[in-house]
Design brief:
The protein has helices at residues 199-214, 251-265, 296-309, 369-386, 407-421, 455-458, 506-509, 511-528, and strands at 13-15, 18-26, 30-33, 39-43, 46-56, 61-74, 77-100, 104-107, 111-114, 122-125, 135-139, 145-150, 158-163, 169-176, 183-187, 191-196, 234-238, 270-274, 313-319, 322-324, 361-363, 390-394, 426-429, 442-445, 462-465, 499-502. It has 531 residues and is an alpha+beta fold. The protein folds into 2 domains: 13-214, Immunoglobulin-like; 227-528, Glycosidases (TIM Barrel), CATH 3.20.20. The strands form 3 sheets. The protein has an 8-stranded parallel β-sheet with strand order 25-24-23-22-19-18-17-26. A 5-stranded antiparallel β-barrel has the order 2-3-5-6-7. Helix 2 links the parallel strand 17 (234-238) and strand 18. Helix 2 packs parallel to helix 3 (296-309) and helix 4 runs parallel beside helix 5. The radius of gyration is 25 Å and the shape is elongated.
């Protein structure tokens, strides 16, 4: 962020104990309703603010336009809607609220951190480490809270930013319009802002929207959750082939692992997750064919059939976003994410340890109709050939405001078409934000635990430990390529399905840790009433 080093000149208006001001952003510049043109009318708790001109460049310049903000006060909070019109296309609006006490701020899954400059003073939605919902809380010294919630039923980016003038906090509420819909006129979704002593009541507002507007149903009744998935107590992360070609577990060893665990837990409670089942992790995407070094087509068929004979279900991994240009049809090289201005996005990851990013891949978006059909055809073919029980979509949580098509819509359509094609089929994702919860009833979680108010997730979905969690022993992170780290023992009391990573030496050398994970899975299953 490049902060202005001059006074921009917006005018603040008193609403209850707060003061609010506004900015409007076009694709060319930023404006505020001209202070000398601002009119304010108040009647019975409703305030309407209008202007017929905008000012910019520290009020040195002005231009014609139309601005209207309607604020309705409701006790300790208010609702605010903004409407603006400019001669230029509008990409977003901001509401500034000052008069807020300092405190801690909610991050990720409602974990609170002391609010600090350049640490957590800029939070984006949807971004899994920052905001999974368009909702933020500030927690104050006396356990009172300030909240800001967008009532937007569409998945459109929001940014919450804090400034620290004097003793208090100035909170910025940014709405970023869907880049497909930029126009000279914009109606911003309603913001709800205020004080609360009961954050779960505010969380419940988002839950009602997710149910009423998106049709999200509880886990127990979701039609896209197979009955077998409701009995899962343990996920086996069966690491296959590293990016370099190093094989951790071939299909034969994976089957041996599955049989070993199924004998001790009961196969109906086990999900075998197969990352890098198709050879070089990430590099071979999107070929998605059995790896010769792991046992080829016959070996993969033997793994799936053998797992099914034990009652275990098997799900392979593919990339929702990443595709190697070498294996991607030439006509789909334009499927990479673009930003709102049409610039392609490319993520460089250092896969070969030369300390430079490897940019061989297209960061393809599932919203691209051609790439979505390509992946759909791949998944359908794999399921028909090998009898998988679902599909895991890696990197499903990435969001860009693409001006051509909407990524969330791509995920929802992809999942819907799979369920139309296959019965008892589970769509499993790497991570989540609220808008893709209807597509992914099961996901990973990098940290494994949720801080609080987990009903907003647990009511509808389930989560298990992420692929990055290390295997027993040296703590290898396997194909995820995060080096070595301290192994994590699953918490049977957490609302997280236990998982255990298997690398090359896990089955042969870590029977005690496997037994421990199985006992934790039994405890989890009994607590959840599925064993």
């Amino acid at each position: 962020m490049q902060p202005f080093n001059f006074e921009f000149g917006e005018r603040y208006v008193a609403i209850g104990p707060w003061q609010i001001a506004f900015r409007v952003y076009s694709e060319f510049n930023v404006y505020t309703p001209a202070p000398d043109a601002l009119e304010q009318k108040r009647d019975a708790g409703k305030t309407v603010i209008t202007a017929d001109r905008f000012a910019w460049a520290g009020l040195q310049q002005s231009m014609p336009g139309s601005f209207r903000a309607e604020i309705v006060e409701k006790g300790d909070e208010f609702e605010l809607a903004v409407e603006a019109e400019l001669p230029e296309r509008i990409k977003g609006t901001t509401v500034y609220v000052r008069g807020i006490p300092k405190g801690e701020i909610s991050v990720g899954t409602f974990r609170f951190e002391p609010l600090g400059e350049r640490r957590n003073d800029l939070l984006q939605y949807p971004k899994v480490a920052q905001c999974r919902f368009p909702l933020v809380f500030l927690k104050h010294a006396k356990a009172d809270y300030t909240f800001a919630l967008s009532t937007d039923a569409e998945v459109r980016q929001k940014t919450f930013a804090a400034q620290f003038p004097g003793e208090g906090v100035l909170l910025e509420l940014h709405h970023h319009e869907d880049a497909r819909k930029w126009s000279t006129h914009q109606q911003t979704p309603v913001w709800q802002f205020g004080k609360t002593k009961n954050p779960p009541d505010i969380v419940a507002r988002r839950m009602r929207l997710m149910e009423d507007q998106w049709g999200l149903e509880p886990w127990e009744t979701r039609p896209d959750v197979p009955d077998w998935a409701r009995r899962i107590c343990l996920v086996l992360n069966l690491h296959g082939t590293h990016w370099t070609g190093y094989v951790y577990n071939d299909y034969a060893r994976q089957l041996a692992i599955v049989r070993y665990v199924a004998d001790r837990l009961g196969g109906r409670h086990v999900l075998a997750f197969c990352p890098a089942w198709d050879g070089r992790y990430n590099y071979n995407w999107p070929q998605y064919e059995p790896a010769a070094a792991m046992g080829g087509e016959a070996g993969l068929k033997g793994l799936v059939a053998g797992a099914h004979a034990c009652g275990v279900h098997v799900i392979p991994q593919i990339g929702a976003q990443s595709a190697n240009r070498t294996f991607l049809p030439q006509g789909l090289h334009n499927s990479a994410f673009q930003d709102a201005f049409g610039n392609p996005f490319s993520k460089d990851v250092d896969w070969d340890n030369d300390r430079m990013g490897d940019t061989y891949r297209v960061d393809a978006t599932l919203a691209h109709p051609g790439f979505r059909q390509f992946l759909l055809d791949k998944v359908c073919s794999l399921n028909e050939r090998f009898g998988f029980d679902g599909i895991f979509m890696d990197i499903n949580q990435v969001f860009h405001n693409d001006s051509r098509f909407h990524i969330t819509e791509g995920h929802l359509d992809f999942a819907r078409r799979l369920h139309e094609r296959f019965a008892e089929f589970l769509v499993f994702g790497e991570s989540w934000y609220d808008g893709i919860m209807p597509a992914y009833p099961l996901t990973h979680c990098a940290k494994g635990k949720f801080a609080q108010w987990n009903e907003i997730f647990e009511k509808y979905c389930r989560v298990t430990y992420h692929l990055v969690h290390p295997a027993p022993g040296r703590g290898s992170t396997g194909v995820y390529e995060a080096g070595f780290a301290a192994p994590i023992v699953p918490d049977p009391d957490a609302d997280v399905i236990p998982a255990l990573a298997f690398v090359e030496d896990t089955l042969a050398g870590h029977a005690a840790e496997i037994s421990q994970a199985i006992e934790i899975a039994k405890t989890y299953g009994k607590r959840k009433g599925i064993i």
